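User: Here's a protein and a ligand (pyridoxal-5'-phosphate). What would the complex look like?
Assistant: Let me lay out the input and then the predicted complex.
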Amino acid sequence: MKKEYIAPNIERNYAGNLNKYGAKSVVRHIDNIDGVPVKELLGKYGSPLIVFSENTLRKRYRRLQDTMNMHYPHLQQAWSYKTNYLGAICSIYHQEGAWAEVVSGMEYDMARALGMPASQIIFNGPGKREHELQKAITEGAKLHIDHLDELYLIEKIAKKEEETPQVAIRVNMETGIHPAWSRFGFNYENGEAFRAIQRLLSGATMNLIGLHTHIGTFILDARAYYYAAKALLDLAQKVYEELGIAVEYIDLGGGFASQNTLLGSYTPGEFASPSLEQYAAAIGEAFNESPFAAQHKPMLILETGRALIDEAGSTLSTVLGKKNLPTGERAVILDAGVNTTITAWWYKLKVSPTRAFPGAYQNTVFYGPLCMNIDVIRAAVPFPDLHTGEAVVLSPTGAYNNTQWMQFIEYRPAIVLISESGNPELIRQRENLEDVIVREQIPNRLKDF
Ligand SMILES: *Cc1c(COP(=O)(O)O)cnc(C)c1O
């Protein structure tokens, strides 16, 4: 057989040293997802293609459940819909026992449509509308109150409907994370959260059943959760002592980091991100020190999103073409861009070839198919010379991509779930023109041209 031609290139040799990206890169190939060949998946469902591993989804969920329970045995997880609200994905988490955590009326409707009882839906979010609250209250959902105007609105609806809403107060605080997220809920340090609770109880229209915080996202210091848990448990103790109410749960929100590598970071995510065990240990420590937890054993709720799902998702993409840039770098144009994979704007996504390469590496920029200069999937990574038409795997891409994806000039790709027995199952069809224009109306006078 004739040997394949490999174009020569010259690259400075930094033998034994770290390169300027922090480590000597070795590009490993991925030719299957959970045993199903990438080629087969692309042949059957088209390119690009988003693929989820059911095995990884369930394993990560159970891992968090088991690890947390070793430190404090009253964990209830609530799946953060905005991280990924595909019906099949949410259903897997609900099968595992997760409640739903929703941040908008749309997400609330999604959870109800999947069959979640309202009593297992936590309604967070800063922008709940009156009709959405009305529905959630009459159905019996758990409302997490973000600001005073929302509290007044809930009071008004409760009186009108003669209902007693089940509510928690959202609290923001200093946990050593910068910048501290202060936009959600009431502040802890200046006493605003306690005053909001006093106001809530004086209205005598709702049941205060929990305290909630969401301190941020991609929190790289597990210790922040110790401080967050401690603050909410101290607040719970104060509410119990001074107002006579023992809350049923402490909800620490989401924010655990996935194994992705942040764009600004030299340290790969596998090393920079705390493990689920480290987060659990920090939270467990605060609970085990707390007199409130010792006496009342409140339920601990975690709304972990990206750390559960990111590694379960990959995006398969095909090389449309290549060119050389004036910088000396190679450019590769992929059929998946930031329209399907918006987290390329925050992470150094891993780009993997789908076969082994004998050739040398050249610094390569991976672009998507969009007419925007910022459609960059991965900048400046040493990479072998791909051929037009061959596939690459982008990973991890399981979190936030198919909720934040954008329509811009392309149809959205199909999404496939690999079952635990290794069967690919289509969970979202590739879009067509009808999907894009079905809601439009063209006035008759514009139809003639
Ligand atoms: C987004 C969000 C989550 C999930 O956050 P991750 O960073 O994905 O873990 C959980 N709770 C609330 C209230 C959120 O807004």
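Summary: The chain has two domains: 32-51+311-432, 124-304.
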